[in-house]
Amino acid sequence: MMPELVTPQESDGEVRLAALAVLAQQARDLVDAVTLTDVPEDELTAVTAELVALTERLGAVRREGPLRHEFGPDGRFRHLGNAVVGDCNPHALPLVVGRTAEGGVRADLAFRPSHVGPPGSVHGGVSAMILDHLLGEAVAAAGKAAMTGTLSLKYRRPVPYGVPLLGAAAVSRSEGRKTWAEGAISLPDGTALVEATGLFITPAQWVGIGTDGRETAEARAADGGDPVEGGRSGPR
Ligand SMILES: CCCCCCCC/C=C\CCCCCCCC(=O)SCCNC(=O)CCNC(=O)[C@H](O)C(C)(C)COP(=O)(O)OP(=O)(O)OC[C@H]1O[C@@H](n2cnc3c(N)ncnc32)[C@H](O)[C@@H]1OP(=O)(O)O
């Protein structure tokens, strides 16, 4: 039988989303446990059988797609399903990004053993994913809604997992629809492990849309001052 499709609008109360975030965290802990487990084979088989049953229970009612960009109850734009920052996405660290006094962004982070690539250190693609997002957040902090056009990485030293690290990024310049940003993942003492530069491009159809998905004041003025009711929908 086909599972029933439930749209986000029908199912997403804040209490349910909070429960989903707890489930996502448990799933992250499960991934760590799978990555590091050394229990005997029969126990692996028994746990797998239980996980098959749990997977079926969760899949009994499925939504059409991952959680979308939306406005939270505090009026802030959020994306709980995001692969890097989404509290409800088990794939996300999740990264908690804050703004700096200088207009850039920063985030404390610690990679998990499941992020391993080369012996004892984090996969370069995982570092790239984090830096892509941080640079994008820096661009958003500068008021630009944009997507990554190019991303260039300099891997200076192996990135360890399981230890506190710092991610930071800031915009370096902006020209029309193009914005350049740079950033790094560093040890707490400031030693840079991976450095990134990127070009972010505001898609032509996003011109006049702010980083909260709503029409900007400039665009409203150009349109004759009529605000867009409820804002345009964000990227899916
Ligand atoms: C509804 C609004 C809601 C707003 C929401 C804002 C949220 C902010 C909040 C929170 C921050 C979150 C942070 C996220 C961070 C993560 C970001 C990602 O991972 S993004 C996924 C990976 N990137 C893609 O999938 C892009 C795929 N590519 C495209 O969609 C297009 O190619 C795009 C938008 C990059 C360019 O398309 P065109 O049609 O606008 O571009 P054309 O008009 O042809 O070119 C404009 C100029 O840009 C250059 N250009 C175009 N693409 C380029 C590229 N890839 N690299 C370098 N230059 C490029 C061109 O040569 C041209 O330059 P010349 O004006 O001639 O000087």
From TrEMBL:
Gly residues composition bias: residue spans: 227-236
UniProt keyword annotation of Transit peptide present: yes
E.C. designation(s): 3.1.2.2
The name this protein goes by in its record: Acyl-coenzyme A thioesterase THEM4
Catalytic activity field: decanoyl-CoA + H2O = decanoate + CoA + H(+); (5Z,8Z,11Z,14Z)-eicosatetraenoyl-CoA + H2O = (5Z,8Z,11Z,14Z)-eicosatetraenoate + CoA + H(+); dodecanoyl-CoA + H2O = dodecanoate + CoA + H(+); (9Z)-octadecenoyl-CoA + H2O = (9Z)-octadecenoate + CoA + H(+)
Segments for region (Disordered): 214-236
Keyword Disulfide bond listed: no
Organism the protein comes from: Sphaerisporangium dianthi
Entry-linked SUPFAM superfamilies: Thioesterase/thiol ester dehydrase-isomerase
InterPro entries according to UniProt: HotDog_dom_sf (IPR029069), THEM4/THEM5_acyl-CoA_thioest (IPR052365), Thioestr_dom (IPR006683)
Top enzyme category: hydrolase
Membrane topology according to the record: Peripheral membrane protein
UniProt lineage: Bacteria, Bacillati, Actinomycetota, Actinomycetes, Streptosporangiales
Keywords: Apoptosis, Cell membrane, Cell projection, Cytoplasm, Fatty acid metabolism, Hydrolase, Lipid metabolism, Membrane, Transit peptide
Domain Thioesterase: start-end pairs: 120-177
Annotated Basic and acidic residues bias: 214-223
Predominant localisation class: membrane
Entry's localization field: Cell projection, Ruffle membrane; Cytoplasm; Membrane
Coiled-coil region(s): none
Molecular functions (GO terms): hydrolase activity
Family of the protein in this entry: Belongs to the THEM4/THEM5 thioesterase family.
